[in-house]
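Not sure how to ask, but would you mind making up any protein sequence you like and the tokens describing how it folds?
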Amino acid sequence: MKSRKTFRRSMAVLMAVLALTLPLCMGAQAFTTAPPKSVHFRADGTFKVLHICDTQDNQYPRPAMILFLDRLIEQEDPDFIIFGGDQTYDTAHWSFSTKKALDWQIAPLLKHDVPFDAVLGNHDSPSLFSVFRDITWGNYNDYTNSLTDDPAWWLHGSGTHNTPVYSADGSQVLYNFWLIDGGDYDYFATIWSNIFGGNSSVYDYVHDDQIEWIKTRDRYLTDQNEGVPVPSMAVQHMIAPDIYEYLVEAPADAEDDYRWFDGKKYLAQFKDDAVYTGLLQETPCPPDHPNGEVAALSEIGVKAILTGHDHVNNFITNIKGVDFLQTGSVGYNAYGNDNVRGCRVIELNTADLSTYTTRTVLYSDILTDPADIAMWQYGKTEEAEAITEEAYKATKGVKTDRLNAMLDKMYELLAAAAGV
């Protein structure tokens, strides 16, 4: 894995030129015929994606989440899964156990042979050590079903890239997903804020070089598609700051239940004229840095931006012509609410790629069998982490198909602990 941060700053001018030129000469073959590792529409023209956010667990995760992912894939039969960031939690990095945490989350996908992609979130690297973010991103490449990539490695963040969806015969790109890393924290702004009394962490954001790379890459895709723009969606961990255009300002004397943004207080409440569906249960926490990203994505025809980060929000709205699809948390290791805990399903059809359908799938929709319910209720508790720890250690010597062996052992132990 290349070390980027120092190089990036010392050669800023050169990288700006490369950002505009290299995307035009990279991966030309990949956009005329499908490479061996790729995703495709089905013969009937359908394509189903699961957007899974904020698994946010450690090397010994709570087994309820692993159970849910396994049963979810069985029932939904997706073509593709996208992890929306915060797959891991800070303590996994400090204990050098990031790969163990990912093993558990990827095991159900490998079991069902489902390809996946991902973006990173603010918890996917320990604060002030950006090199670990690059290492974390590199771990995803170890899985045979991973489509993660880092073609524009000189950009801010780790792993900004795009994943095309090919026709059933692999001859044409019909759709595209932009996977954008918004970073973790703006360290200089955080230090400045704390010195002057802010006492808070300031989130990083999608930078101009990333936006320019996306625009350039989009032109390339259009050229390869005989001048016809390829419809697309974008995926990033944090919602864009434009969401505050639709939120109600809090009274100046408000003492709680608000969030500061751009010098004003805001409530977790949409304005009366805002058009939305779903649940807004906490004030969104986007970066504080407005950067024109949404306008730029709207300009190239992006249909929707998929985000997580705000664990108890699950809504859809439209800003600047782009749908904001907010997905609730799936994990139990961090805060959440079972009324949104689950994943988002997105379905495309070649009959009309100008639109899509989407719905939320909760634990209670998937885990309906009495045995599964009992394992879910026990498996979401902190004490149940001992089950995944024991399963991991018991299968340490397995040389072939180790991750499936881990799952089997987890189910054996979980069923016994839940009394089923």
Q: What stands out?
A: DSSP finds 13 helices and 16 strands in the chain.
